[in-house]
Specification:
CATH class of the largest domain: Alpha Beta
Strand content: 25-35%
CATH topology of the largest domain: Rossmann fold
Bound molecules: adenosine-5'-triphosphate
Shape: globular
Largest sheet: 6 strands, mixed
Strand order of the largest sheet: 5-6-7-3-8-9
Length: 333
C-alpha cells in the first residue's frame, strides 16, 4: 500500500464575499444600510494528493485560485467547505507541530528585515522554531553553502541583489527543516541566472532532505526542470492532474521556432512553414507541429534568408491558454 499523502485536499472550496459598492459618498451611505455582496468562487471543490518527496507544479492563469489554495493548505485562511490534511495535520488549526513541518515562500512577499543582515532574521526564526544554537549554525552553514550565499549573510538585506534576497528568503524559510514546502512564484522577477540557481537549489533540497514541494511558477523552465507532475487549476477548478509530458503533448503538440531574418519578409512568405504568431521587422515567431519540426526547420533554413534560428518550448501561458480553450476533466483527482 502507498504511504499516506503529505498533502491531501478533498473538495477544498473557498468563496469570498466581496462588497458591491460604488465610489460616491451616496453609494457608501447606501451600502451602509443595504449591504450588497457578490460571491467570488476562488476555489471550487479541488481534490488531490501529493505524496512524500514529490515535487508538483501548480499551474493556472492569474486569478485561477492557486494562492488561495496554498493559503488554505498552510492554514492562513479557513475553507468555505472541504477537508485538508498536510503532514498529518488539519492546516487551519495552526498547531505548533504543524507549523514546524511546513513552510510557505511567496515570491512577492518578504520576511527578511530590510535594514538588518539576513543572519539576524535567521536568528529570530531560530528562536521562534526553538532551534538549538549549534544546530542553527550547522543549518545556516549548510543551506548557505547550497545557495552560494555564505559571503552575503552579514550584509544588510537592502544591499543584496534580488536573486540573493530570494536565496536568503529561502534560507530563512527552511531553517526549521520543514517537510512540506509551498513555494508561490519563488523565481518571480529574477534574472535567468538567479532563476536557475533557485531552481537547482529546490531540486537539491528535495533530493537531500526528501521534502515534498508544491510549486507555482509562471516560468515554464521552472516547472519543466523540477516537476514531473502538474496540477492545473482554472477558475477555481482542477482541470488536470498528471504528468507534465502528458499536458504538453495533449495541449501543446507544437514547438516554437524563433527566427531572425537577414531582411524583413511579409507574413505570407513565412506562413507555409508554420503558424505565424509574431512578426516584427526581422524577428518572427512560428508555431510548428512537433512531428514536423525537423522537416520544417530544414525547409526554413533552405528557403528563407535566416540569420538565426532557435527552437523553444511554447510559453507556459500559451499552453495553459490551450488547456482552457479545451478543458478536460481532472485525471486521477
Ligand atoms: N481576500 C480576497 N477577497 C476577495 N477575493 C479574493 C481574495 N483573494 C483572492 N480573491 C479572488 O479569488 C480569485 C483567486 O485568486 P488567487 O489569488 O487565489 O489566484 P492565483 O491563481 O493565485 O492568481 P495569481 O497567479 O494572479 O496570483 C481571484 O478572482 C481573486 O480576485
Amino acid at each position: 500500500m502507498r504511504e499516506a499523502p503529505a498533502v491531501l485536499a478533498q473538495d477544498l472550496t473557498k468563496h469570498y464575499q466581496v462588497a458591491l459598492k460604488g465610489e460616491s459618498l451616496l453609494a457608501t451611505l447606501r451600502h451602509f444600510f443595504f449591504r450588497n455582496y457578490r460571491t467570488v468562487k476562488a476555489v471550487e471543490g479541488v481534490s488531490f494528493a501529493v505524496y512524500p518527496g514529490e515535487v508538483v507544479g501548480f499551474l493556472g492563469p492569474n486569478g485561477a485560485g492557486k494562492t488561495t489554495t496554498l493559503k488554505m493548505l498552510t492554514g492562513l485562511i479557513h475553507p468555505t467547505r472541504g477537508q485538508a490534511l498536510v503532514a498529518g495535520h488539519v492546516p487551519w488549526r495552526r498547531e505548533k507541530a504543524f507549523l514546524k513541518k511546513i513552510t510557505l515562500v511567496m515570491g512577492n512577499k518578504q520576511q527578511l528585515i530590510w535594514d538588518l543582515p539576513a543572519v539576524d532574521t535567521f536568528r529570530l526564526n531560530a528562536a521562534i522554531y526553538e532551534i538549538p544554537e549549534a544546530e542553527f549554525r550547522r543549518r545556516v552553514l549548510e543551506l548557505a553553502e547550497m545557495l552560494a550565499l555564505t559571503e552575503k549573510l552579514h550584509q544588510p538585506v537592502r544591499k543584496l541583489s534580488l536573486g540573493e534576497r530570494m536565496k536568503a528568503e529561502l534560507l530563512a524559510a527552511l531553517l526549521h527543516r520543514p517537510q512540506v514546502l509551498f513555494l508561490d512564484e519563488p523565481t518571480l522577477g529574477l534574472d535567468v541566472n538567479a532563476q536557475v540557481a533557485v531552481r537547482e537549489f529546490v531540486r537539491e533540497y528535495n533530493r537531500r532532505f526528501g521534502a515534498t514541494v508544491l510549486l507555482t511558477s509562471h516560468y515554464m523552465a521552472d516547472i519543466a526542470a523540477l516537476c514531473e507532475r502538474v496540477l492545473v487549476i482554472h477558475q477555481g477548478r482542477l482541470l488536470y492532474d498528471g504528468a507534465l509530458e502528458g499536458l504538453l503533448e495533449r495541449f501543446a503538440p507544437y514547438r516554437e521556432v524563433g527566427l531572425t531574418l537577414k531582411a524583413p519578409l511579409p507574413r505570407e512568405a513565412l506562413a507555409p512553414f508554420g503558424e505565424v504568431r509574431e512578426l516584427e521587422g526581422r524577428e518572427a515567431r512560428l508555431l510548428v507541429p512537433r512531428e514536423r519540426l525537423t522537416e520544417r526547420v530544414g525547409e526554413i533554413l533552405n528557403r528563407l534568408p535566416v540569420e538565426d534560428l532557435e527552437v523553444r518550448e511554447p510559453p507556459l501561458e500559451e499552453v495553459i491558454a490551450r488547456v482552457f480553450q479545451n478543458p478536460v476533466p481532472a485525471e486521477g483527482a
